[in-house]
């Protein structure tokens, strides 16, 4: 990176945040503060990440919940670790079973898209291996917010109301009544500044803490989840829950201009960001704000995306694996397809060979990149009675094509959109980064990383810079802050442009970087939401 730029062309940019003893960056102030308080009580960056993640299930239920999946990349004692906390589909589900229910595609709501939640198991696994405090201590802030309540922040209230308006039109079956009882107890979405609480969620979090998540997968909570599933026509059983365990994995990487960029391997889509960077490193970018720079970024990500849509699934089902998709030879072949005009991308054949994100760092050099999600908003609309557990709808990402590598089948992990990222250089940690938002995530990773590495922006300026998003074919969406001359120049290159006024469609990110020489932390948070960096 060229250094910290305190002057930049983006009017909403705030100054970056600095600290030495600890830092937590996420989309909700209460959750970030909870993470810092855990550090002050003697916890490390891992304890802070778990505390923040658990708090986010309470203070941002519009994006994640106890019934979510999670992934993490951990830097601990000069080594990088990856944790895949995504759950599998129920054993009894299949394409034929879904078609027998009258569906030609996987619905967004109800039991069909529900997979085994991985987040509670991920918290317990991280705590057991790396935490300094007990899980009960670490989850206490989340329990307190659920029990006593908290006032809604502006962005949270906006998306809560948006989700409620959708759910009241679509969730008409009695199976969804517990969602409305939990998240709209007054018959409407809570408003800005109103107190919302969930005593059931507090009790569930307490039981998860006291049993180290055993109750959720093999105890009383598991019985409640499976019992409600059986009673209301779901697929998840006690056996499905009991068989769940997070997996420790080796993160995958590419080297981009001297920096190693790390992602969790498939079933996650982090490989898209790596493949795009692998293609882009063959070009030189003298300036950020040129049509040529944006054009090449867009084209590289298009090529990476169509490859992922064709080839990425749970690793054991993939024909082409990470090493082949990320090879220098394959990147060179894909790079040749990028010319002066927008292309209609097609998948290649390599040679054989709603989401929350948080970043934490402590004064000892430990750092965590952590992400968890329901997939879409509040998730499936299924809330398990008496628990406050809102179940995710992650199964929407499966394919109904039985010949596809990501075809729906029992006991299988789906293609996964949520991806934590991490940056190192010369075998030293630089720091965690992430941008949430479904298929915007790898696109956000590439844009934010290039803003810092190629164009020298500090983390806050890198996050605040205008973003774009490839949608399909030659269609891209641009934020309203793109100047007209840039829009016209990209259109001249064959891009079909839509202006998106909803800032949340471009993801919400966090970055923490550490100076290897001084240990000073510098962070940035998302200006498109209620994001904050808590410092110590």
From TrEMBL:
<dbReference type="InterPro" id="IPR029055">
    <property type="entry name" value="Ntn_hydrolases_N"/>
</dbReference>
<dbReference type="InterPro" id="IPR043137">
    <property type="entry name" value="GGT_ssub_C"/>
</dbReference>
<dbReference type="Pfam" id="PF01019">
    <property type="entry name" value="G_glu_transpept"/>
</dbReference>
<dbReference type="InterPro" id="IPR052896">
    <property type="entry name" value="GGT-like_enzyme"/>
</dbReference>
<dbReference type="GO" id="GO:0016740">
    <property type="term" value="F:transferase activity"/>
</dbReference>
<keyword id="KW-0808">Transferase</keyword>
<protein>
    <submittedName>
        <fullName>Gamma-glutamyltransferase family protein</fullName>
    </submittedName>
</protein>
